[in-house]
Amino acid sequence: MSFKKYIEPLRDSLESKGFNEPLPFQKQILSKIKGGASLFCIAPNGSGKTTSIVISVIQKLKGKAVGDAPRALIFVENKQAALDLELEFNAFLRGTDLRVYCAYDEKNIDHQRDEIYNGVDVVIATPKRLNRIFYLNGINLNLLQMFIVEDAEFLFRNQNFAEVNRTPESIDRCQYLVFSDKFDSRFERWQDSFMFNTQTVKLKK
C-alpha cells in the first residue's frame, strides 16, 4: 500500500517529511484502521506506531474541525507523553484545521474543562484527568469515533487500567485501537466487555 488514498494535506505532509511508503508494521495496520477495524497493534518501539496513530486520526477526521465535541480520544501515560504526541500531531496538521488538546494532571482542571467545552476534535489525555473532567461534565463523548491507547503498558500501573475501563461506559459505537509492545492477557477483559470482534495484529518477523 501507499499513501495515495489519504487526504491531500496529509499526503503533502507525509511527502514533505520523506514518508514515501509505510513501514512494514504500518503496512499491516493502516489499511485495517482506515477500514474501521478495532485492533490491538503489537510491535516494538521504532515500528511506526505513534505515526500510525497520527496518520489514522487525521485521515478519519478528514482534517476538518467539526462542532464542539471531540471525535478522537487518545490515552497516554503522563504529561510528557501527551506533549510529545501533540508535537507529533502538529508536524502533520498543515493544511488542516483540526484542534488537538492535551489534558493532564498538572494543569488547572477548570481551565481544561472550559477549553475542551469551547471545542476540540482530538483530546490527548491521561486516564485520571480525563475521568475527572468527564465527571465535572466537562467533556461530551457522544460523538467519539476513535478511542486509542498509546504505549498501553502503562495501564497496569497506578490504577490506570481501572480509570480507562470507566470511559467506554459513556461511549456508543466507536473504533478502538490499542498500541503496545506486547499483548497482555488483561486486554482480554476488554474483548469481553467493549472491544468486540477486535483483531490482534503483531509485527511479522
UniProtKB/TrEMBL annotation:
Q: Which residues form the Helicase ATP-binding domain?
A: 30-201
- InterPro entries in alphabetical order: DEAD/DEAH_box_helicase_dom (IPR011545), Helicase_ATP-bd (IPR014001), P-loop_NTPase (IPR027417)
Q: Does the keyword DNA-binding apply?
A: no
PROSITE patterns, per database record: HELICASE_ATP_BIND_1
Any one Gene Ontology MF annotation carried by this entry is: helicase activity
Q: Which PANTHER family does the annotation name?
A: ATP-DEPENDENT RNA HELICASE DBP3
Q: What is this protein's record name? A: DEAD/DEAH box helicase
